[in-house]
User: What shape does this take?
Amino acid sequence: MNKILVHICCGVDAVYALRKLKEDYPDAHIEGYFYDPNIHPEEEYILRWIETERVCNQIGIKCHLAPYELDRWLETVKGLENEPERGKRCTVCHDIRLEKTAQFAKEKGFDSITTVLMMSPKKDFDVLKTVGKQVAEKYGLEFLATDFRKNGGIEKMNRLSKEAQLYHQNYCGCMYALFQQRKGEFVPELVSFGRGRLPGSREEKLFIKKVRLYAESLGLPCYEQSFSFVSWRLISSTLKINKEPVSHAVVWFSKSTKGVLRDRVQEIVEENDRFIVKLKKSFVKIWILREPLREIPLDFPRFTTEPILIVGNDLRERFEPGTRLEIQLKAQFDENGESQNLIVGKKEAEKTVEFHSDTLADGSGGVDIENVLSAISENRKAILTGNKKVVIYGAKTVGNIGKYYFNNSFINV
Assistant: This one.
């Protein structure tokens, strides 16, 4: 029996290609091999692996996860950083991935290799075919050059990936290709903001996908509700008291200052849980907590606000009328922010176990994934009978947007 090892780069490219291979080679033993050292950052690598694993589980194909080897890729493509898409860097990148696949195939007794890269309309089929055959021959293997795009393959891929609610990446993984596409612009895909799972971030999506993978492995129905919102990211901030930098946080959706703001304290107003510092010339405010410094989530959605900084109770004595302050804040707003709710079970189930997927930037205010997985496992029977559902809401820290969307949506699950 022919044994085929399939190099896989992502779930989207694999969702139809694997089905096509099973159709073309019904008597073959097929396994997957996920290896993409070009992907950056590592969280993106893991996210694409999880979606690949979901696809392989649905089809009944075993898939192997190769180690993340970004350093090896960077060294191999050194000197080709400015090559265009489909240029020499891409050829070398194909060679790295197929070489690793062929090595694994030879070790494990496979006869043939192929790659779902031939599914992507952004890849050069002829280059892949040439590289694939050269690598396969080197290891005494056959390379299956299947053009998955023929006969409506792209349309079938799009339909299947939509049905499976797969994560659609917006770049191949290569940082150099992304730099060229954005032409000097800020590239948020390559940056992690804080130590937590910010609403709308890759880390939040990764949390949801991990939970879904586990729930589906238990045979539970899952559905993701995606929703858009205006997202906000803190790029940098500075607070100095009499020229001395002090620790602080920033309230979500605070606007940027126009350069460095120099002002003095005008008055301090006492409220129930904090003191409010007002300045003489600007609308910037500072909240002094009655407790140690912490970030504060929003109870309801906000779209923009004057800059508000937060300090802990240890700095209360430092703020007096006339105190000199220096403030600088740079934030980014994005009207294309997107998060999602995950519903495990039927939406109309009477009882609901609720969690949320996001955290504050420092990682606080979140839920440990093990608690979510345990709840799903403990309630499996009730979920299957339709008596209970588990819902993980997105974007809680910016005003419970996910829960609001869930409660006011009319999507049939």
User: Anything to note?
Assistant: The first helix runs from residue 11 to 24. The first strand starts at residue 3 and ends at 8. The chain has three domains: 3-191, 211-229+335-408, 231-334.
